Prior knowledge:
- The chain has six helices and two strands, in the order H-E-E-H-H-H-H-H.
- Helix content is 65%, strand content 3%.
- Strands 1-2 form a two-stranded antiparallel ribbon.
Amino acid sequence: MQFFVIHVIAESAWARPYSWARNNISDLGNAHCALQSEPEPRYICSPEHTLMNGSFVALGVLLVVGAALTGSSLWRRGGTAAVSRLLLACAGAGFVLAGLAPSDVDENQHALGALLIMAAGNIGLVLAGFGLAEHIAAPLRWGTSLLGVTAITAFGLFLSQHYLGLGMGGMERVAAFPLLLWVLAVGIRGLICRADRCRPGL
Length: 202
């Protein structure tokens, strides 16, 4: 939740309007004002880049902790769940790396972070649909894998620069946001269960 709130705060600080279609998510964390030509020409100047990069790091740490500490309340036993949790933790490490190494400071490290998020994280999301505990509601289980497949497909389209009318930034969000929306949904479920004791199938 903090990521989406800070995303809005950071984009609102731009003098030139920030575009979800034309701008990458990473543009919000760039440390310098400059005209960027690749992969699409755009002027980047993010006054709240420090806040945004802090959000990336916080998100990553929370994702790693969540993957490590959730147990039988969320996951079934077995290799599928274990691999899924490992890949989700890798995505968390990717967010930390992306926040510590803005793309205009260390492009290679930032690209590695993005790869961990949108490759490892989305594969982990697909597997999570098969690794969630049996008492989890079926729509959440199959919806999890569907989100992962959607995100992986979008990541492939993003890399090949086929944006399907969504723009570079729009396709990147289709590749990156399903993981975050899933984490948000699972977190809300956890809060509900903590407050009201989950019944089977929730």
